[in-house]
Amino acid sequence: MKYTIISIPQTLTLRQKLLLAFFAVIASMVALAAAAVALQTRAVHRAAFNEAQHVATEIASVVNLAENGDQAHLQHHLVMMGRFFDRGLTVLDSDHRVIASTKFAVGSVQHDVNVEEVLQSGITREVEVEQPGGRSIKEVVAQVAPRSATDGNARPGAVIVEYTQGFDQQMQETWQAASVTEFAAVIVVMLTTLFAFYATSSLVDPLRDLQEAADAIAAENFDVRVNTGGDDEVSRLASAFNAMADKLSLNRAALHQRNEDLAYANLMLQDKTEKQKIAVERVEYLAFHDSLTALPNRARFNVVLAQAVEHAERYGQKFSVFFIDLDRFKQINDTLGHDAGDLLLREVGKRLAASLGQGHTVARLGGDEFVVLLNDFSADRLTSLLAQQILTAISRPIAINGQELRVTASIGISRFGIDGSDELTLMKHADIALYQAKENGRNGFAFYSHERNGNSFERLALECSLRRAIGRNELLLHYQPKRDLVSGAVTGMEALLRWQHPDLGLVSPAEFIPVAEDTGLIVPIGKWVLRTACLQTAQWRAQGLDDLVVAVNLSPRQFTDDGLLLDIVSILNETGMDATRLELEITETAIMQNPEQARKMLASLKSMGIRIAVDDFGTGYSSLSTLKQFPIDTLKIDRSFIRDLATDVEDRSLTEAIISMGKALKLHLIAEGVETAVQEDFLRQHGCHAMQGYHFSRPIVAAEFETFVKRQRRNETAAA
Prior knowledge:
The protein has 22 helices and 21 strands. It is of the alpha/beta class. The chain is rod-shaped, with a radius of gyration of 67 Å.
């Protein structure tokens, strides 16, 4: 059996699908009702036929066609049976003649094909005879067999039973029942149709509202809500939808607020990024430019020089390096002050830049030292000409603070490929050539030369070695303990620089410190000393020696360096050193060179918590009344007053006076160079606070110092 599958178009709406389903049910009900009527009609017809067939069979069983003389009896009997069965009855002989009938005249002939078929086959059949007027009569024809056994040639006859009236009556009852059924079906269909529309509306309309609300929310209209009347599934779905919409609305508000916060944060971040970019650019500029002259500094020049070496090696070109130093600049600086010196350096920087064409680099290394890189200069004659132009430009009069100054310079020249092929060698030889130029009488220039006298060679060799000392880790610190004269405890130490030369052994500070001062190397060396001392003190503090104050010397040149404050801040942050445990020692001569600038610098250092000590007091020309104008914490009495305390009355008087005035100014007093018990007793009796010297301890390395302090403290604890 094959089935036909009907698929519902997916484009139908839910309402259409539901109505289609309802109408399918209604159509099924109508079809079932029609089938029931048809089956009922068929059953009525079959019942009427069976009844008529039964009657025909009964009559055929009692009729004797051979007994023609008994026709009157047969007619009477047939009439009685017709009345009983309420049927039209007819008996035919084999020639189709009526021998008895309740409808036809006896002797008439009935010619009907179906009758002949019954007579021939002997099977009872149904016959429907059309009557004038279009009316049809339903009849059943049954065979009547001859009863006479002697008449072998006798043919069977037939009995015709009409059942139209009974059939019509039953059909009328059936159609009445069918009419009632059809009416009921119509009512049911109408009610079902109404229910279908109601059901679809009650289901689809809320769903349509939900769809419209969902579309509104999808369009970011979070204020729409759905009517939730009722307690069925759709109503609960609507309530859940409204709850979801409420949550979405809250989330959207929170998201909107979050977006506003993010937008503000992004704006602040952009502003911060821009400021940071400016700060980075400023830091980068400061890192590679001299703050006084705005020229490239040493770090930037080193990069340019390395690039020039690489370019020259690759393309076979030549270049020269000029090392320039102003003659007697220190004298001008000390006489007119640092402000005048700064103006002079700015003007020299401008003249150097103006005297060079494009493609060359001029930089300031520090102090009064400048350096120039001349690109693609291979001829000594052209190099000499440019060097003379620079000297001429510098020597022109300079007006500063209403005074006309004249300054000269000396230039040392080294050439790539002749005097060196790497940065360090070129710089070293240019520096050596500078000193050769100074030895030749200043205000001139000199190319690097291997011929030089012994003294110059020794100084230059010492200077060159000193330049490499930091990178080769040849410098080291010794620490000299300071002793409190009342308690006897170690309160701190002074960091003292030492140079362990690989060939010369331990070089005396008296030999290399002046060279470092003259060349400006004292600035990077002093920075190394400060970093190393702070790092060591921070390590000791982490090990429990947290009450020690380390003293570090600042040279006059280092004290006036523009980058001093930045270096100190950077080192404190880098090492984790507590600023209150750092004491910077400055000579009174360095302070009095430019009192106003010194006052500003010392105030900045004090604001950071750093202690200030005046070193070698008494050897200069200042007085305590002058020094009290500065934020000073400690006064160190020079060893020259301490050395002869036992024999020199004047030294005792001066030392006693210094102690008295220092105490009056509430300064902490430390005596240097204490070597005997007599000196220690004198200082203690007159109220000096602390001392340092060989009598207590010589300067020792870090490991020995740590052991020394711990042993002293164990002894103090045992004595207590």
